[in-house]
Amino acid sequence: MSQTQNDVQKTPGQNGARNYSGVQTYQGGCSCGAVRYEADLDLSNVGRCNCTFCTKYGTTGAIIKPAAFRLLSGKEQLSQYGREGTPNQRSFCKRCGVHCFSEGDLPELGGAFCSVNINTLDDVDPTHLTIGYWDGRNDNWQAGMRPSPWPFKS
């Protein structure tokens, strides 16, 4: 039986860390400050993908509906990257190169989505988050997330 995004075991933060569960509004941006955004996120539900892009960029994402994401500044500083033949686009700051978020449409993720790179959030300690793992390298999205990394070859 495969696990869904909500089936991944979650544990609370350690050492009196902030409670990241439930939807809260967070702000974030790139390293140089040119790109700023805010997003309504539930950080008890973040994931890593083993596809070549996510692995090489070290992205950990929180997936939300596009309406829960608001670009505050820096639209003119964004550059997009997407593989040919896919509707998914990753946005980077032209100045510092930081990947802040991506947008796309995957039926397995409920259609249109935005994925916020949690490493770009202000005042969030990612070491206190429980992370689920996707098997994007093998296009195994239907399996959902699981609590341990997927091997590169299944």
Summarize the helices and strands and which ones pair or pack.
Elements: E1 24-29, E2 36-41, E3 46-49, H1 52-57, E4 61-64, E5 69-73, E6 78-81, E7 89-93, E8 99-106, E9 111-117, E10 131-134
Parallel strand pairs: 3-10
Antiparallel strand pairs: 1-2, 2-5, 3-4, 4-9, 6-7, 7-8, 8-9
Task: Jot down its keywords.
single chain, 154 residues, mainly beta, Metal Binding Protein, Guanine Nucleotide Exchange Factor, Chain A, seven-stranded mixed beta sheet, 1 helix, 10 strands, 4% helix, globular
Structural summary, described in words:
- Keywords: Metal-binding, Zinc.
- Belongs to the Gfa family.
- One of its GO terms (molecular function) is carbon-sulfur lyase activity.
- InterPro entries: CENP-V-like, CENP-V/GFA, Mss4-like_sf.
- Residues 1-20 are annotated as: Disordered.
- With 154 residues, this protein is mainly beta.
- It has one domain (20-133): Metal Binding Protein, Guanine Nucleotide Exchange Factor, Chain A (Beta Complex), CATH 2.170.150.
- 4% of the residues lie in helices and 34% in strands.
- It has 1 helix and 10 strands.
- A 7-stranded mixed β-sheet has the order 6-7-8-9-4-3-10.
- Strand 8 and strand 9 (111-117) form a beta hairpin.
- The chain is globular.
